[in-house]
Amino acid sequence: MSALARAAAEGTVLAPTGSSLVLALVVGVLFATGTYLLLQRPLTRVLIGLALLTHAANLLLLVAGGLSGAAPFIGDDGSVPERMADPLPQAMALTAIVISFAVSALLLAVAYRSYALTRDDVVQDDPEDSRIAHHVEEGPS
Prior knowledge:
InterPro entries: CPA3_antiporter_subunitC (IPR050601), NUOK/Mnh_C1-like (IPR039428). It is a multi-pass membrane protein. This is Multicomponent Na+:H+ antiporter subunit C. This protein is mainly alpha-helical and 141 residues long. The protein is 67% helix and 0% strand. It is built from 5 helices and no strands.
């Protein structure tokens, strides 16, 4: 008998709740929307897309953390360690929040500087990329 089947028979593994499914769907929607916005030309949409992606990653870490409500340490109350929340995903989420804040601040500064120079937040095509694409369309000479 596998360890998972044995734990399920003993009642130490809980089935996923409806809220976990809803949070998983929210994570999927946030990832999809963030990716879509990240691929757009305006820098404001890129910034919002990056923020949505980081929020989705943080939410995914918290959902992966497992159950909550009880203290994450083993005490004398007879708690089963398998039913306790894992504190590592929460620590990783806090670290990810700090890193995403720094990256968002840097991207906001770059977007502001780009807007100050060009008075437009749309990213233009690189002339070298356009030349290479035109060369590929014509075929080798």
